[in-house]
Amino acid sequence: MSESLIFRTPSAYDYPLLIKNLLFYPVVDEPDQEIVYRNQRFTYRELRQRIARLANVLTTLGIKKGDTVAVMDWDSHRYLECFFAVPMIGAVLHTINVRLSPEQILYTIDHAEDDLLLINSEFLPILDQIRGRIDTVQGFVLLNDEPTIPESTIEFAGEYESLLSSASTEFSFPDFDENSRATTFYTTGTTGMPKGVYFSHRQLVLHTMGVMGVLGSAAGQGSFNRSDVYMPITPMFHVHAWGLPFVATMLGVKQVYPGRYLPDILLELLEREKVTFSHCVPTILHMLLKHPNSARMDMSGWKLIIGGAAMSKSLCIEAMKHGIDVFTGYGMSETCPILTISHLSPEMLELPDEEQAAIRCKTGRTLPLVDLKIVDEKFNELPRDDKTPGEIIVRAPWLTQGYLKDHKTSERLWDGGYLHTGDVAVRDKQGYVKITDRIKDLIKVAGEWVSSLELEDMIAHHPAVSEVAVIGIPDEKWGERPLALVVVKHDATVTEKELAHHIKEYADTGVINKHVVLLKVKLVDTIDKTSVGKINKVALREKQSQ
Predict the structure, then answer these.
(1) Are 425 and 392 in contact (CB under 8 A)?
(2) Are 544 and 471 in contact (CB under 8 A)?
(3) CB contact at 8 A, 390 and 422
(4) Dist CA 89 CA 377 (whole Å)
(5) Active-site amino acid positions
(6) Is the distance from CB of 308 to CB of 534 less than 8 angstroms?
(7) Per residue in 59-90, pLDDT tens?
(8) Domains of the chain
(9) Whole-prediction pTM
(10) Helices (H), 171-325
């Protein structure tokens, strides 16, 4: 290449990939589009003004580039404003998982070195428990949805809306290094203390573009475009609500924020605001479909990404019968998170529900710029035959560089130059990935591996089963044997013996490993979940070992 072709004019603008640049386009082209929270409605024009007001409030309170601002709130317009204003002034946004224990919350606040905490009045009792041991926070801002200010011994810098009302609607957001850290949050941590995961402006912008590209280019099924109405049902404190609020804002779509996830409110908003695009974990979808109000609702036209845990075919088929365009997305906290989406081709949409569900429940095909491999223990890539399992390892420009202040664990995460997911999967000739289990959740029976996810899917097909989780328990003869913990539907009856026989039929026909005949079934009232709604198999194994 000649020098003339690579010469850059000194005055050329070196355009940094900053979060602020996701905001400008919809503000110009869709200034009157709505953002809804409870009974409040704001336009995108007002959103831009409120973000500037918040930036002025933060800088007046002493927040500067490199400082950390933490938020404890339910999903709200305020959270969306923080998604932009905090990193746009060069500070770091720490989205606190409000479902962690007080001790874990204290740990994350100190570990992230938070300088300012914005807190919903509902969480003041938690703050009262730990405030005397918080070392870094210099100020507090109250977030309040009630007509009166609650009594508290905490000295607040002010109440959010009051502070914003007296601030200017103008703020000049600076350019700076796109590799600056923008966000920090903490993994749910089923063992030990949570680990801090962080992302830069560049990573968040590229993730937004990648997700928008794959969802926006979908031919109808599973698409997300400017005609949609968006409502997250994945907490904004968890991986930026899967990054979809950034995508929704850049598209300029109507956005609906539900606050706390109560099924009555979610279904009411879904119907009233004509929501067409959401995302959630399987347990939330299960909760919504079993709610009595869902039976009378027309859910056709609702596109729903399921992630965070495997979706069973029975749950998928039930959702499809309600008219929901349900499909799988895959990622993890460390991957920003979305890596794959399970879109269906026009030919696949002609298949019967049972066959469609098998595809919709797959992990899907990769987004642009995602280099995903399924490898054996020696890092050899495995054939795309839909039957040879290996670990998913991945590279993409938006993956976290590591864990905050944890160099050794970060090195293990990126061993060999690829991020190790700990997920076991197969891949077919069309490129669709299907997770068969977590490495730590595989059950080794008589020297052979049994997939807990496959067992869960088969048990969930029984008409009496509401929820199921399969774990391995020690066995003197076989090493391990599978234990199925089953919650039965409130209007159904079934015995443990009948469910064991149900699985034996699969083994007799060769559908699954013959060792599943050793399956033990236990009926339970509830199944432990993590703070983000996933089945907590670590807790379940601990309970069963006692």
Answers:
(1) yes
(2) yes
(3) no
(4) 44
(5) 187, 334, 444, 449
(6) yes
(7) 999 999 999 999 999 999 999 999 999 999 99
(8) 19-24+38-200 (3.40.50.12780), 442-545 (3.30.300.30)
(9) 0.86
(10) 201-216, 239-242, 244-251, 263-272, 282-290, 313-321
